[in-house]
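Journal club side-thread
Mid-discussion, someone asked how the predicted structure for our own chain would compare to the paper's figures. Pasting it here so we can look after the session.
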Amino acid sequence: MSNVENKLYPEVSAGGYCRVDHRMEYIVRAMFRQVNALLNSEMTVLEYGAGHGKWQNDPVILRRNLGNFVGRCAKVVACDVDPAVQRNPQADVLLLLEPSGRLPVADASFDLISAFSVFEHVEDAESVAAELTRVLKPGGWICAWTPRRSVGAEALAQSCVELGWRHREEENSFIPVYRMNTRSKLRQLFPQTHFRHYSYTYDGQPFYHSDSVLLARFWQFVFWVRWTRIDDAHPSTVVRVAFLQTRRGRCI
């Protein structure tokens, strides 16, 4: 957590995360409560777009521990188009994907597919959705976290981040294109004839301050004016947590 967020949310000093941390929403509520409720020792799990292992160096111990599926299921497979995945310690099998994105596995190979901050970067949404559908077992689950494409003042703030993305040298970073993360798009890509949808949105803290306290407080004021709340006013990043379950006996 940056010094900016420490100043905006003083409770960060007690545990490393704030009350509206949307990563904790996925890790604690979605992953710990719901994903772990789905998980069992016989499952094979795919970490889609796993990179070098996002959670392995997380400064928050809770996120670091809960983000690792190894030891809690039969097998974890991590895949990515980024060569960084070959150094991922949080999987039993590592797969470097070709640019086409096709997974070198048989149909119906996985019981659960987890994708954190991946769907917003997918350019060929139709091909990726078809491939995830192919490798998922009947009755299997897709669990994903993705930020919503913003509008208005939110979009201006988000653009500040996306401009910075183009200059980032950080490994495992990709420019978001938002072709696979709206509710309507997910229903189109994963039709209800084949999938049951149990998704929701969550309003979390922003990441568009570029490590500037002045900019962060400016956006905090903008969103306070626009989204005044009774007990808590903060600039928001709306994220979607998607839970999709394949129907048994579906046609691929």
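Post-session note: The radius of gyration is 18 Å.
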